[in-house]
């Protein structure tokens, strides 16, 4: 893998989704290492107030507000500063190609992160990837583009960063053990799961994440997406990826080698560590992050996930095995039902039901191109919305 040069020269970072959970934590990493990194471009979808606040602190070269309705607000608020202000989804694709950008952190949520990531890869940028949907939707295409343009993709998800840190060049992987917290309902029976509320689902027991990802964690769809992501990041088959429920979230994931040895990466549940490592690889930088105290650990427990109670995990595996545009169909349907659940339009168990029905109704193809994925996304969203409306 191509590595960032070991240099004391500052690296300019474009953060796609700077106002979200990952983006805000990335800015904290930059605060701690402002001699090494500069927040060069910041972007947001709707969070104009937070984007303005960040821009006034970090003084980036440019900001992008994807929702054009907020453009005048952001432009006026930053008019006294030498910061370029852009709006619209096309601008997200344009700014990452700036010749001064060294690292692109893809931390946007959902399908919207795909096109800007493709633009960054084609521009030869170093990719720190937190937007798992990019590889879920278009993993085969993204891997080919990264190969063609000699672009490294460093994982930012805590689990995939852990796997990456455990790999040994030249030693084939027998199995990836992908840990999951299990979410807030891992002990619920089917009757209890059928009655869970939005507020219950948003109360994650371990991680502080955005609303969409928190709901995905509660359904285990987030873990299903991570299975798909792991397949493309580490070139393994679905059968080589085993999900292990580990409620304490201390072991972030493990790798089992052909001789049976298992390596694990442990640490406190703090996303700043994998973000910082993706920025600094292969170096490790000093940090003030909380340290793991083994003498305070009471138990480390492990369970099998229940794919019957949490059907979304099984659907993700099914989509991965089927291949083609099926993961794109699942992602689109999931984005629709996730939002519908948060809007109290459907129940918790309806999430998997609508996704599965969309998988059966949407047009399947093995063609791979941005146009195919855009068309697939649009069709699957329409089908899912119609199923919800019935």
Describe the structure.
With 390 residues, the chain is an alpha/beta fold. The protein has 3 domains: 11-156, NAD(P)-binding Rossmann-like Domain (Rossmann fold, 3-Layer(aba) Sandwich), CATH 3.40.50.720; 157-270 and 300-311, no CATH class; 323-390, RNA polymerase sigma factor, region 2, helix turn helix motif (Rna Polymerase Sigma Factor, Chain: A), CATH 1.10.1740.10. Helices cover 44% and strands 15% of the residues. It has helices spanning 21-32, 48-58, 71-77, 89-95, 114-122, 133-148, 158-166, 190-193, 198-201, 211-219, 221-234, 272-280, 311-322, 326-342, 350-361, 370-389, and strands at residues 11-16, 37-44, 62-65, 84-87, 103-106, 126-129, 153-155, 173-180, 241-245, 251-257, 262-266. It has a 7-stranded parallel β-sheet, with helices on both faces. Strands 9-8-10-11 form a 4-stranded mixed β-sheet, covered by helices on one side. Helix 5 links the parallel strand 5 (103-106) and strand 6 (126-129). Helix 5 (114-122) runs parallel beside helix 6 (133-148) and helix 6 runs parallel beside helix 11. The radius of gyration is 20 Å and the shape is globular. The termini are far apart.
The H-and-E topology, N to C, reads as EHEHEHEHEHEHEHEHHHHEEEHHHHH
- Count of discrete structural domains: 3
What integer value in Å does the Rg equal? 20 Å
Helix fraction bin: 40-55%
Main β-sheet description: 7 strands, parallel
- Can you tell me the CATH topology of the largest domain? Rossmann fold
How much of the residues is beta strand, in percent? 5-15%
Strand count: 11
């Amino acid at each position: 893998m191509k590595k960032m040069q070991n240099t004391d020269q500052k690296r300019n970072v474009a953060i796609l989704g700077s106002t979200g959970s990952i983006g805000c934590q990335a800015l904290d990493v930059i605060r701690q290492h402002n001699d090494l990194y500069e927040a060069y471009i910041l972007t947001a979808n709707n969070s104009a107030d937070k984007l303005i606040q960040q821009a006034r602190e970090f003084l980036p070269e440019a900001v992008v507000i994807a929702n054009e309705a907020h453009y005048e607000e952001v432009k006026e608020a930053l008019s006294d500063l030498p910061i370029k202000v852009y709006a619209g989804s096309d601008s997200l694709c344009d700014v990452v190609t700036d010749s001064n950008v060294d690292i692109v952190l893809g931390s946007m949520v959902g399908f919207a992160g795909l096109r800007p990531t493709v633009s960054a890869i084609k521009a030869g940028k170093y990719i720190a990837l937190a937007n798992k949907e990019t590889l879920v939707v278009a993993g085969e295409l993204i891997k080919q583009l990264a190969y063609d343009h000699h672009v490294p993709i460093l994982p930012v998800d805590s689990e995939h960063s852990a796997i990456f840190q455990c790999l040994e060049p030249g030693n084939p992987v027998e199995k990836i053990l992908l840990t999951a917290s299990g979410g807030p309902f891992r002990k619920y029976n089917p009757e209890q799961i059928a009655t869970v509320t939005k507020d219950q689902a948003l109360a994650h027991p371990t991680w502080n994440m955005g609303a969409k990802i928190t709901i995905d964690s509660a359904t285990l769809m987030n873990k299903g997406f991570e299975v798909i992501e792991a397949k493309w990041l580490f070139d393994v088959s679905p059968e080589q990826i085993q999900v292990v429920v580990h409620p304490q979230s201390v072991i972030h994931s493990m790798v089992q080698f052909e001789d049976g040895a298992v390596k694990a990466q442990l640490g406190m549940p703090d996303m700043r560590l994998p973000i910082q490592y993706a920025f600094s690889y292969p170096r490790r930088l000093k940090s003030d992050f909380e340290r793991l105290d083994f003498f305070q650990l009471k138990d480390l427990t492990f369970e099998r996930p229940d794919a019957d109670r949490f059907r979304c995990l099984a659907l993700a595996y099914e989509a991965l095995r089927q291949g083609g545009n099926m993961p794109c169909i699942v992602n689109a349907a999931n984005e629709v039902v996730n939002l519908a659940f948060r809007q109290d339009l459907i129940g918790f168990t309806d999430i998997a039901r609508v996704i599965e029905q969309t998988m059966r109704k949407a047009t399947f193809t093995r063609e791979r191109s941005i146009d195919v994925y855009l068309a697939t996304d649009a069709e699957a969203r329409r089908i899912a919305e119609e199923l919800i409306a019935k």
